[in-house]
Amino acid sequence: MISVIRRPGARYPDPSAAFAPSERYPEYRFGPIAPGANPVYAMVRSLFTQLGLDAARSGTPAWNPLGEWIRPGAQVFVLSNFVYHKRPHESVQDFNGKVVHGSVLRALIDYVLIATGESGRVLVGNAPLQSCRFDDVLADSGTAAMLDFYRASGASVESADLRAEVVERDRVGRVRRRELRSGPGTAVEIDLGRDSLLDGIAMTSGDAPHFRVSDYNPDRTEGFHARGSHRYVMARSVLASDTVISVPKLKTHEKVGITCVVKGFVGAVARKDCLAHHRFGSPAAGGDEYPARLGFLKPVSRYHDWVNRRAEGAPAQALAQVIDVTARRALRRMGADSAGAWYGNDTAWRMAVDLARIVHHADVDGVMRDAPQRRHLALIDGIVAGEGDGPLSPTGVDAASLIFADGVLDADLAACRLMGFDPADIATVRFAESVTPWALPASSGLSGIAIDNGARIATGELAPAIGRSFAPPRGWRGHLGDNR
Question: Is 11 exposed, middle or buried, given 0-12, 13-18 or 19+ CB atoms closer than 10 A?
């Protein structure tokens, strides 16, 4: 089932009263009411009412719209997009187009707590970029104020930074501090073997693909992936949860076209050096790091690999890091994007779908099971959405929209339409449903969307949220939306 709410003019509310509703709904369990308008809380509530969830008790204190998927005493992981903190030059609007807002999380978690009861536990977080300042992104997004409210209220709601490796960099790119956090029992390794979608990549040279993820030692990344063996290191707290609720942004992505739900499973990974974001070099050499016309970037990529292979204490390593970061920033400003940031990236979507299959089918010990191991819901935050060079540098746009679905592909299909994109152009959507084994739960398609005031519409009737297609990332211009 899919529910879409669009309220032109809707804005994120003031953080007063920790994003409490501005109306005392019958089911509301907490004391404070916001002194000003909170359209976001009302929109989240409408996502549930227009689907007729728990219809028999709707409008009463006993209403429990998420009770169909969340049982009393359950552990629920809210997998939220906290990709990076606010940069000094970044406007509030652009930051809000990058990161999920605390007001969306507050409304959702209030209803999660109704379902779990007092004995349940809610974790909210993800694994952002290694250099993200997690406390800052919680504060910048308003999530810290929400967490403080729950803590004072005695509700079991906690933040979760899932990264096993955290790096602090200065403004010129030097690594100031590196912290390794993974301890016994915090992560689970899963080998998808020949069933990984990465195993199907054909190399004309016969060599194994040279998988890469920026800013990590390429030897470590290649060590996780070989013919017949593809290992991912996942956060145990996600796999230990009874229900996972994905809360991504409605946002473009330079490597896969859109961020949204399937790509958001990267946030469930504990060790990001296991992720294959692209393959070294141009397609002529079996890579998908950049198109053939940018073949001159190969020395820059080799230098980046060399820098990341070196130990922190190596001679002149700090200078080497500055040169590396400065060169890549300059090339990006010139429009010469690399690191798989283009429509020809044939690696990142495979990795993302692999992770989606793991979160659905791996048990807490990392064994892949035929049946899904946990319930999964999705709520996409598009109050302020992100277009252009997402996921890190999008331009914020007022889309005033929210999407709820009980299937990850349903949510991403609806997101494509709201962004003005054809789902057939997005590989994470186009291929995910047909993958075997460990397929994602079947999508119900777009034929039964509940929209706005409960009306039902068909596939082609869901118009772009901002009246036009979102601007695609630079490497996707001419391949998405109005830019085809």
Answer: middle
Q: Cis link prior to 394 (omega < 30° from 0)?
A: no
Using CA atoms, how far apart are residues 140 and 238, in angstroms rounded to an integer? 24
Tens of pLDDT, residues 109-162 = 999 999 999 999 999 999 999 999 999 999 999 999 999 999 999 999 999 999
Phi/psi-derived region of residue 223, left when phi > 0, alpha when psi is between -120 and 50, beta in every other case: alpha
Sort residue 124 into left (φ over 0), alpha (ψ -120 to 50) or beta.
beta
Ranges under pLDDT 50 in the chain: none
Residues 6+ apart with CB under 8 A from 424: 430
**Burial class for 245, CB neighbours closer than 10 Å (0-12, 13-18, 19+):** buried
Hey, where are the domains in the chain? 2-191+228-275+342-483
**Nearest CA among 171, 45, 184, 170 for reference residue 104:** 45
C-alpha to C-alpha distance for 271 and 275, rounded to whole angstroms: 8
- Asked if residues 149 and 184 have their Cβ atoms less than 8 Å apart, the reply is no
pLDDT digits (tens, 9 = 90+) for 318-368: 999 999 999 998 988 888 878 999 999 999 999 999 999 999 999 999 999
